[in-house]
From TrEMBL:
GO cellular component: membrane protein complex
GO molecular function, one term: transmembrane transporter activity
Domain ABC transporter residues, every copy: 2-230
UniProt xrefs under InterPro entries: AAA+_ATPase, ABC_transporter-like_ATP-bd, ABC_transporter-like_CS, MacB-like_ATP-bd, P-loop_NTPase
Protein name: ABC transporter ATP-binding protein
Similarity annotation: Belongs to the ABC transporter superfamily.
Lineage: Bacteria, Bacillati, Bacillota, Bacilli, Bacillales
Amino acid sequence: MIKVDSLKHTFTIGKKGKENRVEVLKGINFNIESKEIVAIVGKSGSGKSTLLQILAGFLKADSGSIIINNTEIAHFSEKESAAFRMNHFGFVFQNFQLLPGQTVFENIELPLKLKGIRQPVRKKKVQEILKKVGLMEVEDHYPNELSGGQQQRVAIARAMITNPPIILADEPTGSLDSQTEQDILLLIQQLNKNEGITFVIITHDEEVASIANRKLRMSDGFLVGGTKYAF
Ligand SMILES: Nc1ncnc2c1ncn2[C@@H]1O[C@H](COP(=O)(O)OP(=O)(O)OP(=O)(O)O)[C@@H](O)[C@H]1O
């Protein structure tokens, strides 16, 4: 489903004339199969978020290939990346990134509006998802009226409302206490199993990595590992 080959990226940082080149990705290779949960682990600054940004098309790699569902996306224009992203990826972040002035229902509905889906269809889909993530009682609440775990459920519902085959998650439980973390990890496992969503999760946390089928480690610009866990 995802096949990455020889992916390289270097940032140029610092003042003009005194720039430093930081080679973050030195030739990354990996495959992710449909319906896997893969954890990407590694030290702070090792390039995990950079890799995710490049996979999602927010950032262009210097060189290399990214094939997703048989489509080469590494050389897409911004417009092509945006269209591809809308149909293939959902996103979940550590800090939820919900719109504070919109209710739970409206936050989850937004990607459908952006896709031009009609209101009756939107309503039906949002209600189905609210049920799946256990948020029916709070659909008219605003994000600041919810617990952290509830907010992350809203973010997950929003990520999956357009049925993307892949959810990219950057430290999805980083802001949650350990009980709430367990609840969210259970939800991710259920969605993986019942809806067939592939998850790529960046994490520092061994608990989070433990739900993955495979753990890939960023180290010195390379991605290593990939042993399949048996369940
Ligand atoms: N936009 C940018 N411009 C310049 N340098 C950047 C940029 N984004 C990241 N870097 C550098 O690239 C390196 C990798 O950063 P990245 O955020 O990908 O690491 P990470 O593994 O996700 O770290 P963390 O676990 O702390 O989030 C760091 O040295 C960082 O300073």
